[in-house]
Amino acid sequence: MYTSHSSAKLTRVITWVFAFLLLVLMIFSDMLLKWFFKAGYEATVKIILVTFYICCPAAWCALYCIERLLKNIIGEDVFIQKNVLYLRVLSWCCAFVALACLISGFLYVPFFIFSLGATFMMLILRVLKNVMAAATKLKDENELTI
Questions:
Q1: Which burial class, exposed, middle or buried, applies to 91 when counting CB atoms under 10 A from its CB (0-12, 13-18, 19+)?
Q2: Rama region for 24: left / alpha / beta (φ>0; ψ in -120 to 50; rest)
C-alpha cells in the first residue's frame, strides 16, 4: 500500500543509488567521455570533465541535504527550521551548478541547457523553501497558543 512514509523511504533508497552512481561516474567519467566522443574531441572532453568535477561538490551537498530532509520526514519532523535550511542549501547547490554551467556554456553550448535546467530547479526549490518556512512559522506560533 502506498503511503507518504513508504514513498519517503523509497526516495531515500533512490538517493543512495544516486550517490553510488555519482561516485562511479566520478571515477570513470574520463574513460566514458573519451569512449563516447572517440578521437578528435579532446578539448570538448576537457571542458565537460572540468565542469563536471566543479559541480560534484554541489551534487554531494545536495544529496546529503536530500538524505537529511527525508530522514526528518520519515521521523515525522516535517515543519522544522532544519528542513527549511536543507531546502535553502539545495537551492544554492542548484544556483552553483547553474552558474558553473552558464560559464561553461560559452565554451560548450549544450551547457546553456543545463544552466537553464538548474536555474529552474533552483526557482522551484526557493518556492518550496518559502512555503516550508511559512508553514514552520505557523506551526511554531500555534504551539505557543494555549
A1: buried
A2: alpha
Counted residue by residue, the chain has a size of 146
Task: State the residue for C-alpha cell 504551539.
Answer: 143
Task: Read off the DSSP letter of residue 1.
Answer: -
Using alpha carbons, list the distances in angstroms from residue 35 to 32, 46, 50, 107, 113: 5, 13, 17, 21, 23
Give pTM, 2 decimals.
Answer: 0.92
H or E, element range at 125? helix 111-144
Distance, CA of 99 to CA of 5 (rounded, Å): 35
Task: Judge whether residue 142 has pLDDT over 90.
Answer: no
Q: What confidence category does residue 146 fall into, taking pLDDT thresholds of 50, 70 and 90?
A: low
Rg (C-alpha) for the chain, rounded Å, is 19
